[in-house]
Write a structure and sequence with these properties.
Blueprint: E1 14-16, E2 22-24, E3 43-49, E4 52-60, E5 65-67, E6 70-71, H1 72-75, H2 79-92, E7 98-105, H3 109-127, H4 129-138
Parallel strand pairs: 5-7
Antiparallel strand pairs: 1-2, 3-4, 4-7, 5-6
């Protein structure tokens, strides 16, 4: 039979920094990522998805979106599309630091949202390569989605749909 061992108490020490955030003495806050001031400068880029093309210009500002002369919520009333186009700013933690001016043509709503997202990500990449590129690339925001509609083939009704076959 084993004898019960006395429970040992582990004493943890916590320090409080100037913001009032407690952290253990084993690691210091922000040791993994040193604070960097993000570069704020104007930039422009082009994004494409399916048949949609978005010409994007970002300028330092307060986070105002102008798409074909309209506001973001009137051009993309669907919250999912608004989230998609804002994804590069959320990933780089630069929300509200740039005004976005975009001209979009071609395609449907989802294709236009994807094109705008790629254009914004490329523009943020052009602003500060050192700080933004690794984060945007890891999130997959700098890659163009190359999926497009397959062309119609001769003798078929659509790309793959064949006319009905009758044996007799």
């Amino acid at each position: 039979m084993s004898t019960p061992t006395p429970e040992t108490e582990v004493e943890e020490t916590f320090e409080v920094n100037e913001q009032g955030i407690a952290y253990s003495s084993e690691s210091t806050p922000g040791a993994d990522a040193p604070e960097r001031v993000a570069t704020i400068a104007p930039a422009g880029a082009t994004g494409r998805r399916k048949q949609a093309v978005a010409r994007v210009r970002i300028v330092p500002g307060t986070g105002v979106w102008t798409i074909n002369g309209r506001e973001l919520d009137s051009y993309f009333p669907n919250k999912l599309h608004q989230q998609v186009v804002n994804e590069p700013f959320a990933t780089t933690q630069l929300e509200g630091r740039f005004d976005v001016i975009a001209r979009i043509h071609g395609g449907g709503i989802t294709g236009q949202a994807g094109a705008l997202r790629l254009g914004v990500a490329r523009a943020l990449n052009a602003v500060d390569l050192d700080a933004n590129r690794a984060v945007l690339k890891k999130a997959g925001l700098l890659r163009r989605d190359a999926r497009v509609i397959e062309r119609k083939k001769a003798g078929l009704k659509k790309a793959r749909k064949a006319p009905q076959f009758s044996k007799r």
